[in-house]
Amino acid sequence: MLSRLSIRNIVLIEALDLSFAPGFTVLTGETGAGKSILLDALSLALGAKAEGGLVRRGEDKGAVSATFLVTPLHPAVALLAEMDIEVEDDAIILRRTLTADGKARGFVNDQPASATLMKSLGTMLVEVHGQHADRGLIQPAAHRRLVDAYGTLGAECEHLGTLWRGLKDAEEALAAHEAKLAAARDEVDYLRASVDELTRLDPEPGEEERLSVDRSAMAAAEKVAGDLAEAASSLEGPKSPIPSLAGVLRKLERKMSGAEDKLTPVMDALAAALDVLEEARTTIADAQRSLDYNPGAMEGLEERLFALRAAARKFKVPVDDLAALAAKMADDLGDIDAGEERLAGLASAVTAAEQAYRDAAATLSDRRLAAASALEADIARELAPLKLDKARFTVRHSEAEPAAEGIDRMEFYVQTNPGSPPGPILKVASGGEFSRFLLALKVSLADRGSASTMIFDEIDTGVGGAVSDAIGARMARLSEAVQVIAVTHAPQVAARADNHLLIAKSHTGSATTQTAVEQIEGEARKEEIARMLAGAVITDEARAAAVRLIEA
After folding, report:
1. What domain range is 169 assigned to?
2. Domain assignment of residue 9, yes or no
3. pLDDT at 133 over 60
4. Entry pTM
């Protein structure tokens, strides 16, 4: 409920602090006293469009602060929790400052807030109703929500929304799988050929680096082998000195007789040279045999590297990713092979989700029709005392496209006179009739589907005493469920209030006009209601009538 309203430098108000109590509060005063200024100021705090003209003349800035007391379960508390704004002592304080050039800043519990957030909070906290205000009675979408609120169908609506989201998720999963399957079918031949090729190649992660290291080692061994072969050829080929030296040694041996002292040193040297050359040839042969070089292995290694790198270029991936690519392609083939079975399962899931949604939507639709019928009867009972006994209120139902909210479209129609065609409430009802239909609806809804504070701005304009009395009675009844604040010129309405605020103009010494508000009771309240009855000149008869209204 609205507990406090503080206004600084707004139009005719210099400084005003008002406290509001639960129940039914009326604001009265002469025409032009400033009742609309209070509503404009409150609307500013609730996120309404800021206009510099609201700032009091001669001032640079104005401000409005509205304090609401809420329960921990109020939806506004949940909204603020999402914004990381704390609610202390069950109070939500909406504050708006406005400069003379039209720049506004908003705060919620002293935290900066956008006008959008303040407007959302305002919608949850307050409903302002007047003869020409844009209200939920105009929009059919709001009509369905009001029927749901009247029938206490919130849990069913939430369940249906969950089923709708489940259906959409199932449809998206089916569509995604169908698209994947269609794309896979287009490249199935390519996939099979690629998997066969990669399976034969059988690449391993890290294989390229390992083969490169081996090839470098083999290349080095190949060079050494060439050098050893050249050395061996020098000792064993046609240019080898060994046969020549052996031949010379044999010739010298035949001529040893008589020349031993001369030839023996020569022959010993030649024999030693032959031994050294033979040892060198043996060592070279041993080195060739021990060398790890196989021309065939080198050729196979290079062919493997070439095949791996050719596959990497073909599939446009690094060599080390070929194995993972082969596994993925094999999985894709598996998906294609198992795709039809999975597709059937997803289609069945969609069918089941759709059936669950349709069953729940049909059940909710039946309950909505029952709630609409009960609402029609409830409002019919309220219309006669409001002098609308010839009028008829109906909830017109039609089928809508399936959505999270269900399959129903509901629109409030009225027939104001017998024989006249029914039509949408805003088009058929006059301003006064509209307000009374609204009041009947709000009384029927009571604390269902309404904000915790309801403000009625002169909805009793243009109606007579009996109707005004009926309006006051219904506002008083409505105030048992929510806080009701009414701006009124009807004494019958004012007499039924729990709290009475009098708005009046005052003039300072400098002849500046200001709006002042005071809470009245007792004799002051009787005098105000007498003024409302009699006008400018208050008679004793008016005072007596005021007493009777209050006592009644």
Report:
1. 157-368
2. no
3. no
4. 0.63
